[in-house]
Protein: Protein FAR1-RELATED SEQUENCE 5-like
Organism: Arachis duranensis
Amino acid sequence: MPAVRKDDEDLSPSRSFRYSVKVVQLRLANGDVSKKKREHKVVTRCGCPVEMRIKPKGDSGRWIVSLFVEEHNHELLPMKYVDYLPAHRKISDVDIAHMESMRQVGISIPKIYESIAAQVGGFNLVPFTKRDMYNEIRRQRAMQNGDVNAALRVLEGAARTDEKLYWRYEVGEGQHMCDLFWSDGRSQDDYKVFGDVLAFDATYGRNKYNLPVIVFSGVNHHN
């Protein structure tokens, strides 16, 4: 079980779990307005000896545990809080769809969270927090305004003027694009006339998205 240090023993399960956060009030000279400032979180280490090592077992293709130490030198996180650790929290596709449908009719995130908690039987049974819901909304907005959607809009616009344009894309885990292919009408016509030589170049370096760019190039009488 993961172990953390906590300052608040009375944390509500309906809130995201926060560690060692201190809030200080800074008052301006006139004393009428106050601002909240969150101090930098200090990472503390206690020398916990818990460790697990794995290594390959010869040429069998299997891995084995070569060392396992399970004795902690500190208190463990109570079981009722474990589900609120980031590694255990997850919003399902059904919950995301539910959240989006309620947001479209003007229902706020706190009210949506209360509705989900009522359906499952309590806040302690919801496998995610309100902060996770806000993060999901930000992620969706980033996708709508990001490079992927910009590329799709370009291809959609090109398709309106090029009837032969062929393009397809695939979306993988986490709603991330994993493949994109397109071929415009001019390239297809050129291939029909000059299709004797076609190069498939898969040696292009990976970009910041860690995806290769593969170019189909041909030779015609102008080269």
About this structure: The beta strands are 23-27, 34-38, 51-56, 63-69, 166-171, 177-183, 198-201, 215-218.
